[in-house]
Amino acid sequence: MHERGKPDEANRFPPRPPHPYLPRRYGEHAHEPARHTPGSLSVLSLGALGVVFGDIGTSPLYALKECVNPPHGVSPTEPHVLGVLSLVFWSLILVVTVKYLTFISRADNEGEGGVLALLALVPAELRPMESARLGVVPALVLFGAALLYGDGVITPAISVLSAVEGLEIATPSLQRAVLPLTCAILLGLFSVQKRGTAGIGKVFGPIMVLWFVTLGVLGGVHLVRNPAVLQALDPLHAVRFFRDNGAHGAGILGAVVLVITGGEALYADMGHFGRVPIKLAWYTVALPGLVLNYFGQGANLLLHPEAAANPFYALVPRGAATYALVALATAATIIASQALISGAYSLTHQAVQLGYLPRTRIKHTSSQAEGQIYIAEVNWILAAGCIALVLMFQQSTRLAAAYGIAVTGTMAITSITYGVVARRTWRWPWIKVLPLLAFFLALDLPFFAANLVKIHDGGYVPLLIAAVIFTMMVTWKRGRAYLADSVDRLLAPIGDFLARVRAPGGPVRVSGTAVFLTTRPVDAPPILTHHVERNKSLHESVVLLTVCTERAPRIHIDRRVEVEHLSCGFYRVLIHSGFMEGTRVPVLLRHAQKAGALPEGVNLSDVTYYLGRETFLATEKGRMGRFSEGLFGFMVRNASSASAHFHLPSEQVVELGIQLDL
């Protein structure tokens, strides 16, 4: 036994679901739809413009450009432009408006959205938690989540690079400054993340309003000059485009998908603002601005085919107007990048709480907004990845080849999981589920297939990132399951242990309270039995504490702690935590005592926290294998400490070690 400031690695794992002796209460914390006043609705809609629509709102910078430029684009002839615009318009309507805002956004987990929140709605029998087996649906969802990390690396890089490239249009001599300036902006963006988004978030909304208004005005001016482009509203132009261009026409979907890359973000960020404000912002500001701009770019292309080199910046004359547009576009892309970076933090937090990634240090940057967090490791990994991509691809056109696979893959996985939830959780009949699922996949799969041809041009980047993160997630889950099995074999029945405590010659009781963190509160954990065997003493109050992550995003404070008095000064305590919230153990114990659940006789002013520390041998004898166990051990060693994760005072932590071969 030794006392240290850094507690045990093994207790960094979110624990297994508790024994049936202690009830699980999944589903009892029903989410009540938010009621918005007119004032709050407008404020939330403004905020949604600044966060939710950043990604999709900056797509006009590069989306149409990729449709009319080699190697995957088509020449800017009238049939081609009208066909592409028809595809753009109906993609926005069918994918974003119909699929996400009308259907997918209804699959909320107490108001929270995103692919991992959707996984929490899947019935427990389809996502085994205690077993090392992952399951088909969780495997799909985890790969979709891993793809989103790839999206989080590419989006800031392509968005900022495409904005700064406008300098080349204004003054060709500034071409050499594009890459250094892009890298400097990205480095600055990631450097300020630790300060939080609360301050700069106040200006996000107004800037994005100005951005969408600018998009609409610029597009509208050119649309008035050539209104014939409105023919593209007829979906027959898209049909004729595919008929006339064959395989190349189908391949153009790999560029058109850039128009809807922010669709998944609408769902993932739903918990911050709610469905109604997001829908209001989409219908009144974002969608009109985007449609006007795309059609304005198309109208200008028909009059000036040479504008195909950069259709967006061709909307304004070269000179001062270009510089002003570059400045506004850069601000908009920084905001879009901010949304993806914050999304990566939230995704990591959810994965940690659900037990698919090791614990990491999470800094809350706002005392009012719980969702505003900062994770240093994620931040700087994203920063290094973004800058590396900019230096590797050097042009937004080349980088666009790497874009799309991650988003379309996640979109398809979201559709499939939605179908599973609709059938197995909501009990929809097959006659209702199958047509809707077929409709979603009819949209998702062609986009995904069109992006597969870009793998050799850079599409391998998000797939490689996703493969690495998916491997880590699977290894972590398997390792936790095997660890739990190994620890279970060392457990002692709590009844037998209490009999030893009561028997003559039992351990000497000393003043104070001992808290033993354990994944199985019904039995005596190895660290408790080891402590008594070696020290022959025991505190007069002993708390067997288990933290259980629920499928709900947040749990009401009055329902978070359950306490059962055993005997001999022993107490079982179960803390319920939502997958979107943190766990401050000392605070929750004090709350339980004030509420009367934990007796006043338990001295919380003199507490020692006991944690187990496992060392993994990683030999061929274990079930995981040398490589997997070695990777698991590496992740354990680099995970955040349990004292930091549960906000335990480090000077009151004691570790007890054990060696295991998984």
UniProtKB/TrEMBL annotation:
It is found in: Cell membrane; Membrane. It catalyses: K(+)(in) + H(+)(in) = K(+)(out) + H(+)(out). Its main location: membrane. It is a multi-pass membrane protein. InterPro entries: K+_transporter, K_trans_C, K_trans_N, Kup. Keywords: Cell membrane, Ion transport, Membrane, Potassium, Potassium transport, Symport, Transmembrane, Transmembrane helix, Transport. It comes from the Bacteria. The chain crosses the membrane at residues 41-62, 82-101, 134-154, 174-192, 204-225, 245-268, 280-303, 323-352, 373-394, 400-421, 433-453, 459-476. Signal peptide: none annotated. Residues 1-11, 25-34 have a biased composition (Basic and acidic residues). Residues 45-497 form the K+ potassium transporter integral membrane domain. The keyword Transmembrane helix applies. One of its GO terms (cellular component) is plasma membrane. Residues 1-34 are annotated as: Disordered. Residues 511-661 form the K+ potassium transporter C-terminal domain. GO terms for molecular function: potassium ion transmembrane transporter activity; symporter activity. Pfam families: K_trans, K_trans_C. Transport of potassium into the cell. Likely operates as a K(+):H(+) symporter. PANTHER family: LOW AFFINITY POTASSIUM TRANSPORT SYSTEM PROTEIN KUP (PTHR30540:SF79), OSMOTIC STRESS POTASSIUM TRANSPORTER (PTHR30540). Belongs to the HAK/KUP transporter (TC 2.A.72) family. This is Probable potassium transport system protein Kup. The lineage of its organism: Bacteria, Pseudomonadati, Myxococcota, Polyangia, Polyangiales.
